[in-house]
């Protein structure tokens, strides 16, 4: 049971990937790339989900996926044109499918009404002429049946196909014989003269995937009376027999009223694993079929007296690969198998190479051991990273101790330590690289969000994404989702105008929301921009005053007004909607971003749109910092915030107001902030000229001069969370452990600046009190 | 997996310790370790009872002055001072106390409710009072000891 659960977990992981592929493909179609490959990929994604779901008996999911798949199949074969409207419908269907997957997973519930409506819509698209599809019923059955260890069928190549499981290996003097299976045939009753010939030639892969020909025959028998003929002529003498190869070929004469699609459905899960040929009429002799296949084209109806044209030659969408063992083989990218016709019929070794000759064959290519991708439990990596962090601390500690003993830098010991340090760094970098991931995993959830929010707000929005492959540490990735979600919602809900307004303003009624990721100076920057109306500064200003967030007399620059939207409790939405306006707006985003050592800011141009810029450290595990002394405490100031450090000359320090003072840096004046005083380490500040000054830049670009007592130098430190065992502390971003084994706090520069702003000595100043 | 043996009601073990002249205790299952005092790094903007944080094998462990938390004068750490590392909810904290006294084995019927006259703050930190051999030992309610995360962050 546990094993099944484990497989199920793998299945759901694959579903995630497949859903992403599906959405990606549909979006590509939306952009006009509806070439065969894209459509095929989309079809395969749905098909694979359905197949896996069938194996686990996830009925609702299978049913929906089936309807979806049927439509995609029609699109694939150009029966239904892929119009933009259709693609939109398909996108919505993919959302419903995703809901079904989540629901099957036990996360959330599917809105049955929505699902049913969607299914009906899909059906309507599939069959504009309302030709009833007789396909449905038998399929579901077939799928349900597959719930047992996936069944399968087929014929076999001359080539060695394989198979230990082949039950026909019991004796070796096979004669072709006839098997009649009429289990269910009676129900179907003598179908009126519709005779089909199905030739099945399994490849070794079929058996390897635990499929079984007998079950396929049984499924066929459900469609109507069958007569199956086994051609065992390819079975070699015992001493030449490859136990893992597949040798048998079946030719089945089937009488049924169902159409070809129904027959093909039976073989749905062995697609690509067997050569399948379905012909109307009394079919080809097996040899002829073989010859035809080898010829690499639709077989000419040789030797088939009354044979009309063979309908299709095994066109194989990727088979559903449910790996029976939850091995860490991972991510089987869909690789297009070389459509080379099978050349040498005597190549027993190559299991994959035996791509059926059919033109459009595609197969899932499970990576060989050489290029394999490993699925690793993230906890193991986290543990490794923690350990490496400890190693870094220990190494620093050791170096410090050795330094205290005054050992010559040229001594063996010191040199050995240097090497250790270098190695430690390299190990740390490599380990961090393991956990780095492209932001794609977050980005790919966003198109759906945009669709939903747009339809909820009655706006037209198109999402343009850029830089999905930008890599960032997993710890950061996990925390990106919320802020991005919020910013996107905000961009559509508040940023974009309604289609009418846009038209009136001479814009395209469809608004563009852009989501981009890039690396900039050791940080990851996420930009969310819209081409909407921009921030209505007057309104923002008046609301902020009305809500008592700022004082009315305060003169603010445009930039300051824009940033008012980050104030807690600020929400400009006139009516509370599902989308935003819950009053936990941008201030929450800002808070969570700050907690990550990030910054968020907004720029806006009236009539042209707004851009949110979010910048975060690449990793939350290490940080480059400047180690400083303040009032006897050791603090680490993030290097990213420091512009320069200097020792102020007395003439550069100018008093301003009763207690404040500013530092003249070149031509500008920057407020001086005594860190010790601000954090409450001391009650009065020593003259700034006795200490050192770190010129820092806050997230909003504002500068401040932090006064510390002494600088110890730069160091890379391992970030330790304070929240894990305690809670967030104002002015402190996190903690770290220094070489001497003691905890040092990492300064939150922005918080220190805003703490200073609301300090009691200057109560009269109309400040952005709530801004922090 | 050995079956847990229950003797006459729920027998529990508690670690008792001294804070000033008073005795307190916590459930032994919550105690992770007991360590000698080492200087802590001061946390800014924190309530007075937070002594700061220390490095406990790579984790940042907040140290709380239990006496101060209970409204008594701050403990001046001596060589005999220890901190008891306890798990409170999903957090680990170190409680600075004067000295550990012993391990008690009690049943729940020995626990009396906290008398009314105690102030609210104290009452919310004390689960009950145990009377053993004429001593009065108050059991600490660990989940209330640390402030709510959000409450203080604002």
TrEMBL record, chain A:
Enzyme's top EC category: transferase
Report if keyword Repeat is assigned: no
| Domain HPt, chain residue ranges per copy | 1-104
Q: Which GO terms describe its cellular component?
A: cytoplasm
Domain (Histidine kinase): residue spans on this chain? 417-620
List keywords of the entry alphabetically: ATP-binding, Chemotaxis, Kinase, Nucleotide-binding, Phosphoprotein, Transferase, Two-component regulatory system
Q: Which residues carry this modification: Phosphohistidine?
A: 47
Q: Which residues form the signal peptide?
A: none
- Residue ranges of every copy of the CheW-like domain listed in the record: 622-758
- InterPro entries under this entry? Bact_Chemotaxis_CheA, CheA-like_dim, CheA-like_homodim_sf, CheW-like_dom_sf, CheW-lke_dom, HATPase_C_sf, HATPase_dom, His_kinase_dom
Gene Ontology molecular-function annotations: ATP binding; phosphorelay sensor kinase activity
Coiled-coil intervals, chain numbering:
none
EC assignment: 2.7.13.3
Catalysed transformations (reactions): ATP + protein L-histidine = ADP + protein N-phospho-L-histidine
Q: Which GO terms describe its biological process?
A: chemotaxis
Describe its function: Involved in the transmission of sensory signals from the chemoreceptors to the flagellar motors. CheA is autophosphorylated; it can transfer its phosphate group to either CheB or CheY.
Record protein name field:
Chemotaxis protein CheA
Q: Which organism is it from?
A: Caulobacter zeae
UniProtKB/TrEMBL annotation, chain B:
UniProt-listed GO biological process terms = chemotaxis; signal transduction
The CheW-like domain covers: 11-151
- Which cellular components does GO assign to this protein? cytosol
A Pfam family of this chain: CheW
Extract the InterPro entries matched here. CheW, CheW-like_dom_sf, CheW-lke_dom
Instruction: Write the protein's name.
Output: Chemotaxis protein CheW
